Amino acid sequence: MKVAEISFFDWKDRFNDEESCRRYLKELKWQNGFICPRCGHDHSHYITTRQLYQCSGCQHETSVTAGTLFHRSHLSLQKWFWAVYFVGSDKGSISAVRLSKLIDVHWRTARLVLKKLRKAMGNKDSLYTLHGIVEVDDALVGGKRSGKRGRGAEGKTPIIIACESNDKSAGFIAMKAVESINHKTVKSFIEKNISKDQIVHSDALSALNIISEIQQHEARVTPANKVDGWLPWVHIAIGNLKTFLLGTFHGVSGKYLQEYLDEFCYRFNRRFFEKEIPNRLLNLAIIHSPLQSL
Question: Can you list the domains of the chain with their CATH numbers?
Answer without folding.
Answer: 133-271 (3.30.420.10)
